[in-house]
Every structure is written in structure tokens, then in C-alpha cells.
Design brief:
Length: 577
């Protein structure tokens, strides 16, 4: 059954209004109060500075995606708010909190039939020395949610710990003043919710990928900053240093990919993080890793494209590039985390697979995972084989690319006695000596391909949620960040009496074809759901014969997120709020 105890809140404001800070404080406060939450960010095309919005969703259970509509909207001002109106769908019971002193809202807002709550936010902020409107506003929201003053104090102390005592004191006073604007005796919006006990994490998707990389053994990172992946690098820099690793900011993406190939050649598990434009520049270097059988991991935090596209919005449109981008026949791995929590496991698994199979791995995260923050249960450590097979005690002639039953050849780390070999992008024979002979080319192509195709990836290739019925009415097939939205849509369909199976694919290449067919067997209606314009996943599955010809596609581009109601509407033809 679908869990219904949740509420969605939007906070918008122009540059300098503190909308994002307000969202971070409220998210931490709800965590302190024992609830779960998800905070997604939206900004204009300027990437840094300027107008911004945060979309928050809170519940007494873990959340994996946005709701269909928003219940509350705190408008700190109306400047350039039109850029966010289509990202904040409202319903008849929605309430908009604003100050009449900020002027009239645009017609796009007043036309949504939501109720306005007019409060003197600016005047109240002026009564506090150093008071800010955003703090008064979250004080109002805190009171409506039933948060205590003590809880807000803890959230402020943690979120603004680097701002100094004066800022913290003023913020606390402004929040308390805002809480007093809500009539005493009002029933809290969380009155019937269950309070969680035990540890929970406040973590972003980029941080989760970084943690997974460290768990997988990554100790060297080279990268060039790019939205929306830069947060991962900022988190990794100090945390790598704590465990003896190194992060180097390269001059560009070409340098960064070749740096991690070099570091991995030296025996250190290595990673880079980028977005679509950077991945384009890295493709030749990824091919070098494949040809030389040097393990690397590339995390691509996807954004809207093509070209510079929409850097601050999310889209799953780099799938074709990740699958087919390197020139020539260059078999490699492509994985995608299914949500923020899963980003820890998937990135760790990607690093481990790269090390074990001595190949390149691409991890497809995106802006909706990477720059979102969530309150989640701790992700437990997972035991994996994350070490590469190295050459030891070489006796006689060393053949770096010798043929073995599993296709994996022991790799000599520089300095290994008698372990010298040529590792470059040229085709080669078993010794590593460059060769243009047809026989050598065919043998090495087969070796690099078969070692991936013959590997048993176990049950981690996908998460499958099925009803007890032997044959499901509906089967929803998806991948990556939209998996949570699809799962929530499936829950609503089950509430209506349908049997539904969800297959959320984590390992995209090589796709475990037989396991996929087994999971889809007998389904009456199959829908492939993805967040891009050209149905890239759907056509990829069709090209492999993984889905039947009558399977349907729900493919929609960004920047607007997919929502659970769209899944229900597509499957049943009925509109759902």
C-alpha cells in the first residue's frame, strides 16, 4: 500500500534571498525531529548566484522522488519567479505564504487557485537585529509543521556552524519571531506521523557517490569542475586526504581522464567525475583504458543537453553517449544508481567491477540525484571483491595480455621485477607489443569483450519489486534516478487493485539479457520509463531483443521532473492528482 503521510513545500527567491539556506535548515530540522526528507534544487541558467528554488518533501518514511503537487509555497519575493512556476504545480488545497510588501504575484501564480496566507515577513525581520526574511519564513513553516524551538536551535547550530555567533543568534531570533506569526493551537501538519528513532543521514547524491568511491578503494581523483558534479569533488577533496588519498584539479577533462589512467596504471584505484560536455572530451581516454585494460571509474552527473544545454536541470539523456561513445569496439561497463542511498552501493560496485575486470566503468548519476539532499537510513557497508589481480613472482617472459579462461590477465604494477610491458592505445599481442596483425586484433577484441559478458553479476543488476501474482497486470521497467518515482506510481496502481512489477535496472552494460527476459516473462503490459526525449533506454532494449515488440515507452525530457501521477495516467489512461 502507498504511504500517504507526506507534505511537499517549495521555497523561492531571487539572488541573495537565502532560499537554499532556508531549505537546508528546514531539512535538518525535520531530521532532528525524527522524520525523513528530500530536498531538490532548481536555479536559473546562470549556474551560480541569481534566483533559486528548493523543492522539499517530508514524510515519516524514506522518500525517493518528488510528489505530483506542492502543498505549501513560501515566496520570499516574486522576482523572476516565472522561471519556476511550471516546476511548482499546485492543487486546490495548496497555500502560498508571502508578504504583501513584496508586491503582486504574477498571473501565473494567482491563476493556480491556491489560497494566499499574507504575513508581515519583512516587518517581523526588521524587529530583529540582523534578522532576515528567509529565517522568519522558515520559522512560519516550522510552526506549521509542529517543530519545536529546541529542534530549530539544533538545526541552526548545525547548518550555520561556520557563520559565527552573531549570525546564528540573529537567525534563531528571526525564526522564533516567525514561529509566533502562526496562531497558537494550530494543528501541526505532522500530527499523525510516526517519529523515527535511530541514526539517519543527511546526505546528497554527490556525497553518496563519493562515499561509495571511497568504500570501493578509490584513492586518487583527478577532475575539472563542472555543474552539477563539482559538489562531489568538493566533498571528496578533504575526505580523500583523511585516508591518505589525493584529489587533483586538472586543467581540463582531457587531462583528468589521462591522469586517472596513469594513476591506475601505477596501481591506485582512480576516479573522475564530470557531466555530459566533459564526458564527450573523455571518450578517447576511456578507450585507452579499455584497450590497455586499465581499470578506471567515471561518474557522469547528467544534465540537460545537448551542448551546454541546461546545466542546472536534470535529464537522463547521456545514455547513448555512455553506451556507444568510445570509438571502435570498446566494451566497458555502464551502471546507474537508483537513488541517493543507492548511489553509495552502485558507485562502490562500479569501482570494484572496474578493478576486478580491468576495464572502464561509467556511472550515470544526474542532477536530480547529485544535487539533491535526503534524510535516509544509514547505508550499511557491503562486502565486495574490490582488488585487481596483479602479477607476482614473475618467472620467465611476462605476457601482460595473456589469454586466460576468464579473460583477466594478471597486471604488473610498475616496479614489479621482470614486469615491464607496453601499455598504450595501440592494438597489441599477448606481451603488449604493438601489433597490426589481424589475428592479434581479433584475439584481443574477443578477450576484452568476453571477460565482461562471461561475468556473473549476481542479483545486483536490478532491483525487482513484484506482487505475489504469477503474472503481473503491469510491468514498469526503468533505470537510474526515476526509479523512485516509478516505484511510487506502482504503489498507487496497487492501491487501485492492479498487480504491478517494477524492474529498476542498475547494470546497463553489459545487460544481463537472460535475467532481464526472466524478469519480464508473462507480463501483460510493459512500460519503459525514462527521462529523455528520444527514448534511449527503450530503443537500446529493443536493439538487444530484451523487450517484446508491443512494449510501450514513456520518455519525457527535462527540465521538469517525472512525477508518480504520470505513471498512473500512462498505464490506466485516467488523470490522477
Amino acid at each position: 500500500m502507498t504511504q500517504h503521510n507526506n507534505i511537499s513545500i517549495a521555497i523561492t527567491g531571487s539572488g541573495g534571498s537565502g532560499a537554499v539556506t532556508a531549505g537546508l535548515i528546514l531539512l535538518e530540522a525535520m531530521a532532528q525531529a525524527g522524520f525523513y526528507g528530500l530536498m531538490q534544487r532548481s536555479a536559473g541558467p546562470q549556474i551560480r548566484g541569481g534566483e533559486s528554488a528548493v523543492m522539499l518533501r517530508f514524510a515519516d518514511h524514506e522518500l525517493c522522488g518528488p510528489a505530483d503537487v506542492f502543498d505549501l509555497w513560501l515566496a520570499l519575493d516574486w522576482l523572476k519567479v516565472r522561471r519556476f512556476v511550471d516546476e511548482i504545480p499546485l492543487h486546490g488545497g495548496s497555500q502560498i505564504i508571502s508578504d504583501p510588501m513584496i508586491g503582486e504575484p504574477p498571473a501565473e501564480v494567482t491563476g493556480q487557485q491556491a489560497a494566499f496566507i499574507d504575513l508581515s515577513l519583512k516587518q517581523t525581520a526588521a524587529t530583529v537585529e540582523g534578522g532576515r526574511v528567509n529565517m522568519v519564513g522558515i520559522g512560519v513553516l516550522a510552526a506549521m509543521l509542529g517543530l519545536s524551538v529546541a529542534t530549530m536551535h539544533k538545526a541552526i547550530q548545525k547548518t550555520l556552524s561556520d557563520k559565527g555567533k552573531a549570525v546564528i543568534s540573529a537567525s534563531l531570533a528571526a525564526i522564533e519571531a516567525g514561529m509566533r506569526l502562526v496562531p497558537s493551537g494550530s494543528v501541526p501538519l505532522t500530527a499523525n506521523w510516526q517519529v523515527a528513532t535511530g541514526e539517519r543521514w543527511n546526505i546528497s547524491g554527490n556525497e553518496a557517490c563519493g562515499l561509495g568511491a571511497l568504500r570501493g578503494g578509490v584513492r586518487f581523483v583527478a577532475a575539472y569542475p563542472i555543474t552539477p558534479a563539482s559538489d562531489m569533488l568538493e566533498w571528496l577533496a578533504p575526505n580523500l586526504e583523511k585516508i591518505g588519498g589525493t584529489l587533483l584539479q586538472a586543467e581540463d577533462e582531457l587531462a583528468s581522464i589521462n591522469m586517472i589512467v596513469g594513476a591506475s596504471f601505477g596501481g591506485v584505484a582512480s576516479l573522475t567525475a564530470t557531466s555530459g560536455p566533459g564526458l564527450s572530451l573523455m571518450l578517447e581516454g576511456i578507450g585507452l583504458a579499455v584497450a590497455s585494460e586499465t581499470p578506471i571509474t567515471v561518474v557522469n552527473v547528467m544534465r540537460g543537453g545537448p551542448s551546454t544545454g541546461i546545466p542546472t536541470k536534470s535529464e537522463q539523456a547521456d545514455l547513448n553517449q555512455a553506451l556507444y561513445g568510445p570509438h571502435g569496439d570498446a566494451p566497458h561497463l555502464v551502471l546507474a544508481p537508483l537513488g541517493i542511498s543507492d548511489a553509495v552501493f552502485t558507485t562502490q560496485w562500479a569501482v570494484c567491477l572496474a578493478e576486478r575486470l580491468q576495464t572502464a566503468t561509467i556511472v550515470l548519476s544526474d542532477q536530480s540525484i547529485g544535487q539533491a539532499r535526503a534524510i535516509v537510513s544509514p547505508v550499511p557497508e557491503t562486502d565486495m571483491l574490490c582488488t585487481r589481480q596483479t602479477a607476482q613472482d614473475i618467472d620467465g617472459e611476462y605476457r601482460r595480455y595473456t589469454l586466460t579462461p576468464d579473460g583477466i590477465s594478471p597486471m604488473a604494477i610498475p616496479g614489479t621485477p621482470y614486469g615491464m610491458y607496453t601499455a598504450d592505445g595501440l592494438e597489441h599481442n599477448e606481451k603488449g607489443t604493438p601489433s597490426s596483425m589481424a589475428a592479434d586484433h581479433n584475439v584481443q577484441l574477443t578477450k576484452r569483450s568476453d571477460k565482461l559478458l562471461q561475468t556473473d553479476y549476481g542479483e545486483h543488476w536490478a532491483e525487482i519489486a513484484a506482487d505475489d501474482e504469477a503474472v503481473a497486470d503491469y510491468l514498469l521497467l526503468t533505470w537510474g534516478s526515476v526509479s523512485g518515482v516509478v516505484s511510487e506510481g506502482a504503489g498507487r496502481l496497487r492501491d487501485q487493485g492492479y498487480s504491478v512489477t517494477v524492474v529498476a535496472v542498475r547494470l546497463l552494460m553489459p545487460l544481463p539479457l537472460q535475467q532481464m527476459k526472466n524478469a519480464l516473462s508473462g507480463a501483460k503490459k510493459i512500460l519503459v520509463v525514462e527521462h529523455n526525449y528520444s527514448a534511449q533506454f527503450y530503443h537500446y532494449l529493443m536493439s538487444l531483443g530484451a523487450i517484446p515488440q508491443d512494449a510501450s515507452s514513456l520518455a519525457r525530457p527535462g527540465p521538469l521532473p517525472l512525477r508518480p501521477g504520470e505513471i498512473v495516467t500512462t498505464m490506466t489512461g485516467e488523470q490522477h492528482e
